[in-house]
Predict the 3D structure of the following.
Amino acid sequence: MNALWHGGTIYTMEAEGTTTEAVLVSDDRIEKIGAYEELKPFADKEINLKGASMYPGLVDSHMHMIGHGEKLMRVDLSKIESSEEMREQLIESTKELKEDDWFIGEGWNENNFADRKIFHRHELDEISKSPMLLKRVCRHAILANSSALALAGITKKSLDPEGGLIVRDADGEPTGYLLDAAQDLVSNQVPEVSVNYLTRALQKSVDHLLSLGLTGAHTEDMGYYGHYSRPLEAFKNVIGDHMKFRAHLLRAHSAFEEMMENASYAEPFIDPGPMKIFADGSIGGRTALLSKPYNDDPSTVGVAIQSDEELKRLVSVARKHGEAVAIHVIGDLGLEMALDAIEAHPVSAHKRDRLIHAMVVREDLVARMQQIEVALDLQPSFVTSDFPWVVERLGEGRLEWSYAWKKLLDHGLICAGGSDAPIEEADPRLGIYAAVTRRKPYETHAGYQPEEKLSRFEAVQLYTSGSAATIGKENVRGIIREGFDADFTVFDRDLFAGNEEQILEVETVMTVVAGEIMYQQGGKK
């Protein structure tokens, strides 16, 4: 069945400003592009865009799809702006809990509070005796009350786990603030959720992502919900011919070899990705690994999640299976360790490694990245979330090569755009706006590090050709071109016209995956 798309502005994204009048789609592929009158004789049916603007399908290059669905189902603390408001929200949200019920909250961020307060476990105990786990926005730190700590066996005598930190008070007692690997001590006590729960969370996530105009996402979910088969089953329950969405699965290093040997997928909509490895933590929690101490806490340079030897060993395991790696690196020393491991074990032919976040870099590390087959997963919204407080963490001297998206592009590095949802909002409009303005929505200043602003074309490329190239799909996705997948995002207005605030105001008209309308304004499909 052929369908001719026309009647709007169709951006091919081949080059800045390049458009085509019509696109002829055969089943799930683009057959031809060109003039409407020339293509009309070949069409079985026509789809009139009615003045809307069409782009290659937008893809989020790094998120946690099940986690995003959970955030939509749970208490969201991410927009709370004071410690008192957070306390009131927790009291309200926990008042109906039974004593043995766990309470899990998502996304608190003390940097949004005037007093920068981080709650002590005793303060959480006053709110609820039920076990409580509150995930910081970065997901590299949690707060737990005394009930949760007791279930985890965390006491004054507990040792810090490798790659983690149990924060303690002046008397050496745990405060309930747990960083990186120490989080697992508590999170491992949370009763395992059912596959049915994971399926419901994922269904809510996919429905929402399609409504935002996203045709796919590169997602990390295989290491968080027990055995990998459980989240994988949820993906197969939700995505397929009945619900088209491009889910590229990063495989946690802890599950990687077993997945290589035993897992089956549901391609082309669910496909296996590289081994996911954490090299360090987050700037907000001061666990991102820096080459020099934190400006606002000279006692620490952060946390290495893996030793040099272990990081190299993990990369060698991926190479044994002919696979790439995707390494979480936020600090410059974390990035240096990742590059050491990648250079020691080069990626296989026709594969591309990924460095996720790459927020604090150095010029010498950029030169090394230029010499290897690597792509960078960037999160433009981190600029608007982290500034201005991040200046306190890093100091002015490190800012030149921090959050330096424009420099990275200008040095010829492949860059993709993602949200890291549920850490940030999944809405690609917010990411595009942040890349272009480097400020929060509707603020009027010139932007944080305005020299790093991207053009609107460069920003949209992060979510189209950039996301495609990151997974080696640049020859089939990310551009509206003959022979490419028929994945389209249709907005009610032009992202490249009008003032910058209009980027935030566009509405999704249709989301098209493999030639099929999976979301339509006013009603799904």
